[in-house]
């Protein structure tokens, strides 16, 4: 991630995270969590710093998987958990991706409103 993004205004940081969300993120409705994916550990660290700089705490995890050439690969994930952090995330980084947005709405409709206090329009 370019240093210019890390040093930018909150508006630019938010726009970057929103675009990244639409491309590399998922909503886990079972655990009330948002998660970014990447294969680059440096990007993982940068995402955590970027989220923290706008008031959203997150953690890092990694998962090994077997690639086509029978070698282990690792995918890193930045996990945004906890009601407060997830609410901040969906308030500040509003999903533009239609399917992800609809998944979040379905989660609301199933009665999980205690997990999310975000007004989704």
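-> sequence recovered:
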């Amino acid at each position: 991630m370019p240093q210019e993004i890390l040093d930018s205004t909150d508006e630019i940081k938010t726009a970057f995270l929103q675009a990244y969300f639409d491309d590399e993120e998922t909503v886990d409705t079972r655990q009330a969590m948002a998660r970014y994916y990447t294969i680059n550990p440096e990007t993982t660290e940068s995402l955590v710093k970027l989220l923290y700089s706008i008031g959203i705490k997150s953690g890092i995890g990694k998962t090994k998987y077997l690639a086509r050439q029978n070698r282990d690969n690792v995918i890193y994930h930045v996990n945004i958990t906890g009601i407060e952090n997830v609410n901040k995330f969906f308030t500040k980084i509003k999903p533009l991706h239609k399917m992800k947005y609809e998944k979040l709405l379905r989660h609301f409709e199933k009665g999980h409103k205690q997990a999310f206090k975000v007004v989704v329009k």
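The first strand starts at residue 25 and ends at 28.
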